[in-house]
């Protein structure tokens, strides 16, 4: 599933190819995505010039002088920039045809992604308005995490996955950051000290940044004809490593099913 680093890597991958281009046409082959692709996208976007490609949480924001297209990759979506005459596969549901003979193509086999349209300030869109701060942005720091977790008895891992607390953190990155910060993922969020909140924010930034940098090597794939960006493998310390030795102390990594998603942690290093 594309996580925040993959979405950011996608943003960096497509931005140079689409920024400044005029969208000539919108081709929707199947509008049954997570939400139906709105007809307003096809009516209002053509003729608009893409001025910037932004990101909020796991949404990509294609700003144009006609409005903003919001794109979410869902469970299995990917974007590629391909020549317009590249034959679409059965999973290539939406094309934005650009004025240089290329098109921005959404492939989404499982159709949990979304392409939406707004003419208003995108931050006010109902999907974005309630989101917490960006984990890599200036509004998210130890003080902010500390304030947002006071009085909360839920496990810290669960609060990190709550987009009202911080936007766009997935289970892999929550587990990896908690390991790096030495915090037990099951610990009640409200009982983590200010200093440890600082360390956790730092760890989150580091794992996300490392993943984005690892993704840089896949940028060339965004122009591949088959449109599959091939998400990068991270250097994971605990996630998916049940029973393997902790890279710090050698204790076997534990896995615990907690809610719908597994926790991975070192019983010695994390408390
Ligand atoms: Zn350990």
Tell me about this structure.
This protein is an alpha+beta fold. β3 and β4 form a beta hairpin. Zinc ion binds next to loops.
Looking at this protein, list some descriptive labels.
binds zinc ion, alpha+beta, 10 strands, 271 residues, 4-stranded antiparallel β-sheet
Compact summary:
With 271 residues, the protein is an alpha+beta fold. It has helices at residues 4-18, 39-44, 142-149, 156-160, 171-181, 194-215, and strands spanning 23-28, 50-56, 59-64, 68-72, 78-83, 92-98, 102-107, 114-118, 254-258, 261-265.
Mean pLDDT: 92
Order of helices and strands: HEHEEEEEEEHHHHEE
Rg, Cα atoms, Å: 20 Å
Biggest β-sheet description: 4 strands, antiparallel
Strands in their spatial order, largest beta sheet: 1-6-7-5
Helix tally equals 6
Count of extended strands: 10
Task: State the low-pLDDT regions, or none.
Answer: 217-221, 223-231
- Fraction in helix: 10-25%
Class per helix and strand makeup = alpha+beta
How far is the first residue's CA from the last residue's CA? Answer: 29 Å
Associated small molecules: zinc ion
Strand content: 15-25%
The shape, in one word, is elongated
Secondary structure layout plus pairing:
Elements: H1 4-18, E1 23-28, H2 39-44, E2 50-56, E3 59-64, E4 68-72, E5 78-83, E6 92-98, E7 102-107, E8 114-118, H3 142-149, H4 156-160, H5 171-181, H6 194-215, E9 254-258, E10 261-265
Bound molecules: zinc ion.
The site of zinc ion has 7 residues, from loops.
């Amino acid at each position: 599933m594309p996580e925040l680093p993959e979405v950011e890597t996608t943003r960096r991958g497509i931005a140079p190819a689409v920024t400044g281009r005029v969208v000539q046409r919108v081709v929707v082959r199947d509008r049954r995505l997570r939400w139906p692709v709105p007809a307003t996208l096809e009516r209002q976007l053509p003729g608009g010039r893409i001025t910037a490609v932004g990101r909020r949480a796991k949404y990509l924001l294609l700003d144009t002088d006609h409005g903003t297209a919001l794109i979410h990759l869902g469970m299995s979506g990917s974007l590629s920039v391909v020549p317009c005459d590249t034959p679409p596969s059965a999973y290539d549901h939406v094309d934005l045809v650009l004025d240089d003979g290329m098109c921005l193509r959404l492939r989404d086999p499982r159709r949990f992604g979304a392409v939406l349209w707004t003419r208003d300030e995108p931050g006010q869109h109902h999907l974005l308005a309630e989101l917490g701060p960006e984990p890599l942005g200036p509004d998210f720091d130890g003080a902010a995490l500390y304030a947002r977790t006071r009085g909360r008895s839920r496990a810290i891992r669960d609060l990190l996955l709550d987009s009202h607390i911080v936007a766009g953190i997935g289970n892999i990155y929550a587990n990896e950051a908690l390991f790096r910060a030495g915090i037990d993922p099951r610990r009640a969020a409200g009982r983590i000290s200010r200093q440890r909140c600082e360390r956790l924010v730092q760890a989150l930034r580091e794992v996300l940044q490392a993943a984005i940098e690892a993704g840089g090597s896949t940028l060339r794939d965004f122009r591949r004809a088959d449109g599959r960006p091939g998400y990068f493998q991270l250097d994971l310390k605990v996630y998916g490593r049940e029973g393997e030795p902790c890279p710090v102390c050698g204790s076997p990594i534990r896995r615990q099913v907690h809610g719908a998603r597994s926790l991975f942690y070192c019983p010695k290093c994390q408390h």
